[in-house]
Amino acid sequence: MSGFLDERAALGGKVAAVVGGGGGIGAGIALALARAGVDLALCDIDGEALAATGAAARQMGRAVMAMTLDATDEAALDGFYDAIEAEFPRLDILVNVAGGTKRQRLDQAGRDDIRRDIARNYGYVVQSVQRAVPLIRRSGDGGSIVNFTTIEAHRGAAGFAVYAGAKAATANFSRSMAVELGKDRIRVNCIAPDTTPSRGNMLAMPPEFAEGFARLHPAVRSKGMEMYIPRGEPPPVEALADAVLFLASDLSAFVSGTTLHVDGGTMAAAGFLEWPFGDGFVPTPLAGTLRHMYRDGEAG
Questions:
Q1: Which of 11, 58, 94, 273 is a Cys-bridge partner for 132, taking CB atoms 3.0 to 4.6 Å apart?
Q2: Are 213 and 300 in a shared domain?
Q3: Which reaction does it catalyse (predicted)?
């Protein structure tokens, strides 16, 4: 079966650029592509993580070019694409993973925070796609662009307003580019994760939130995920990497302009949580949960 799928996927011998491919989710994606026979051009702001990921991919026999840079630095990102053009005869796949934010209300955000959120969640994506498209066109075989957005692009994300707006822009930009590039056989899609076990997600929260969460017993920490995610657990990095493999491969040859939600069902749930103490799936806690939350709340 694996031989059949490998043949249909047709990833072997292709070249992928992964922006933010050094650590965490990006590393998982880069190494999954390498295992599928894809050569890599990687960039990341974390040079140490980037070196480790590049070394692991080379051990698999893959050609790797790696550059340490901030994707929001226009000159540095241009340099990355110049190096790809010089190093590789083709480019088939682009994955824009880099991004990030921190939780804060808009009235508490500084102008630099706002500019940074827009640049790292939308601005660099536009430049990255613009530079990648001519390189993908060189082969005449088409290609695949995968941009990371988020579930927050599809709902009102209080405390993450600028981030949510920037990611929504990335989603609609991707749909628009799918239309523009259709005749070139270049597909453009998005992946929208929700909660994932990544360092970036922890850094997005205020320190006191992260510290309080870390003090909880692991069994208690998991209860929140069981209530929030219909699957009962957050998707691992491997699940996101599998989604990229699908969208990058010929298995999705006629999938373009769409967003793939890799979230265990939270987008589908749209606010329905599986509350404990017999309340079940409802948008708001009922008597069973409320009685435990507010023990002194009963009338009389």
A1: 94
A2: no
A3: 2,5-dichlorocyclohexa-2,5-dien-1,4-diol + NAD(+) = 2,5-dichlorohydroquinone + NADH + H(+)
Contact criterion met (CB below 8 Å) for 70 and 123: no
Give the mean pLDDT of the chain: 92
pLDDT tens track for 85-112: 999 999 999 999 999 988 889 999 999 9
Give strand ranges (E) for 168-278.
186-193, 259-262, 273-275
Nearest to 84 by CA among 126, 131, 122: 131
**What pLDDT score does 204 carry?**
57
HEC string of 177-200 equals HHHHCHHHCEEEEEEEECCCCCHH
For residues 75 and 218, membership in a common domain is answered with yes
289 and 177 share one domain: no
Shared domain for 180 and 294, answered yes or no, is no
Can you tell me which residue has the tokens 């893959």? Answer: 62
In the chain, the number of structural domains is: 2
Inter-residue contact 278 to 68 (CB < 8 Å): no
Contact between 178 and 222 under an 8 Å Cβ cutoff? The reply is no
pTM for this model (two decimals): 0.91
